[in-house]
Amino acid sequence: MTQQNRLSAFRPAALAATLAVLAAATTAVLPAFAEPGNEQASARSNVKSGGAMKIGQIESVVLPKMKGYNYIGFTYFPIENIYRLRFLNGIRAVDVDVDARNGRILSRSN
Fold this sequence. Notes:
This protein is of the alpha+beta class and 110 residues long. The protein folds into 2 domains: 1-33; 36-110, Nuclear Transport Factor 2, Chain: A, CATH 3.10.450.40. Helix content is 41%, strand content 25%. It has helices at 3-29, 39-48, 55-62, and strands at residues 70-77, 82-89, 92-99, 105-108. The protein is elongated, with a radius of gyration of 23 Å. The protein starts with a helix and ends with a strand. The relative contact order is 0.12.
């Protein structure tokens, strides 16, 4: 077998191995680059798998502590596994970050 033939025989196997590695790496990285605005789907998936509380449970913990504030809504951050609940106090926005696993308030902006 000539050198050229040996290289030709090696290329398909190397290409297949390279493609398999790239596919695995892409699959692992894709959730981090999920479409913006897809927080609800991520939250639903994490709730179903038991990794996060439902937003209704989170709201039942946080809303009573925010009397006098107008609740605007929430954003779910799947990588950090936190909910950010946004409130208005007059014209100021106040964000409350909550651990999605246990409902503990992590931070509150002023």
